[in-house]
Amino acid sequence: MRRDRTERRYYPVVEAGIQTLRGVYSARLLLDSGADCTMLPRSFAELAGLDFDLLPALNVTGIEGRGMKAFKGPLCLEIAGLKLPPIPCLYTASDRTPLLLGRESFFDLFDIHFDNRHKKLVLTRLF
Predict the structure, then answer these.
(1) Where on the phi/psi map is residue 61: left (φ > 0), alpha (ψ -120 to 50), or beta?
(2) 3-class DSSP assignment, residue 16
(3) Each residue's pLDDT tens digit in the chain (127 positions)?
(4) Reported pTM
(5) Domains of the chain: which residue ranges?
(6) Exposed, middle or buried, 45 (CB in 10 Å: 0-12/13-18/19+)?
(7) Distances from the Cα of 109 to the Cα of 22, 35, 115, 127, angstroms
(8) What is the three-class DSSP state of 59?
């Protein structure tokens, strides 16, 4: 099936506030139902004041199979003014890491509906 070139691709993005030492940072996180864990660049952990000497280091792999060093720590988010309980996040050394919102803990907080017909994501709070 050929796609019409004028058709825009839909990406399920969550508008969220990330808690930092200097306040809330607005970000657009790609909701990735195929990702086990949320993943952000290390710079976000530094903004949040996390100490990397205290965080467990991991080697994570993705689709390409290449490993990448990451540190697991908490992430505090606000969505639509609602402060969420901290969720686990992998902070990578690369600033090129996309802002991915994965399944672990986050999917326990919401009923998630991918409305592809209307090109929108609907989150219904479960707590």
Answers:
(1) beta
(2) strand
(3) 555 566 678 899 999 999 999 999 999 999 999 999 999 999 999 999 999 889 999 998 876 677 889 999 999 999 999 999 999 999 998 888 999 999 999 999 999 999 999 999 999 999 8
(4) 0.88
(5) 15-125
(6) buried
(7) 26, 16, 18, 6
(8) strand
Looking at domain 15-125, what is its CATH homologous superfamily? Acid Proteases (2.40.70.10)
Structural element, H or E, at residue 67 = strand 67-75
Token pair of 86 as six digits? 């901290």
Q: Hey, what's the torsion of the CAs at 101, 81, 96, 108, to 10 degrees?
A: -10
Report the alpha-carbon distance of residue 125 to residue 112 in Å, rounded. Answer: 9
Residue with tokens 């908490």, as numbered in its chain: 74
Q: What is the DSSP letter of 60?
A: E
